[in-house]
Amino acid sequence: MTPHENPPPNGRKPPTSTYYNAFTLSYYDIHVLGHNMTQIWRCPTKSIQLPLFQKYFSPPEHTEARCWEHLDVGAGTGFFVAEALKSCLENRQSMRITLMDNNLSTLKKARRRIESVVGRLGELATVETVLHDVLDGDIPKSLEEGRYDVLTMFNLFHCLRTTAPEGKNGVFGMAARLLRGDGVLVGCTILPGREYQARGLAGLRVRYTLWLYNRVYKVFGNEGDTRAQLEEGLKAAFEEVEVEVVGSMMIFVARGPKRLRVEG
């Protein structure tokens, strides 16, 4: 199925939409989710990030008899959704999984991977894809406000490159508009501050990697990111915000989208 598409304004294409192709995605899990997360950013995927994703992925037992809606923004290779699905195959709750990314290659790879697991659930789970850049501001027409139970943004924010006045914090507002009143936003992003880096040669390696990804490959855009700035954006969009830093990674969980209060 062709993904719903929202063309970038003025033909602008983010660097990540071209850098991540069939070749680079072939070693993404091993290099980025494996080596980098453990050795560089000190926030291992399998022991910290994946359990967090799984915690909010599957519907709670008291969920009413309706389709559980999950929106994953920044699909990557589909690793997190696919692994989370494997852990809840016994759950007979119907689910609709929507993947949003600005890169068609990642959407295709993630969808194939997830559908290989979805096949075990029969008609209980479906997968949709949306080609869209979250920095464009508008919500894609194919998405419905107030629809999603969970919205995940894992390893997305440090890849966003923008000079807009509202910066990246406008993305939190978009998330609040898409979530149900009892919905949850969960995610993590790399912070560049030296206070979050290891000392000595390990710290030098972190700074070199940040320079490489921000200035050479241009797939990062986090040189100006701070915990305070991102936390402020989260609190502007949500009633309840939990933030924790593990290694160089800021983990966040937000509930109570404030857009409901404004509309009410």
UniProtKB/TrEMBL annotation:
Domain of life according to the entry = Eukaryota
Q: Which residues are in the Methyltransferase type domain?
A: 71-185
InterPro entries with a match to the protein in the record: Methyltransf_12 (IPR013217), SAM-dependent_MTases_sf (IPR029063)
Extract the Gene3D superfamilies matched here: Vaccinia Virus protein VP39 (3.40.50.150)
Q: What's the protein name?
A: O-methyl transferase
Q: Which UniProt keywords apply?
A: Transferase
GO molecular function per UniProt = transferase activity
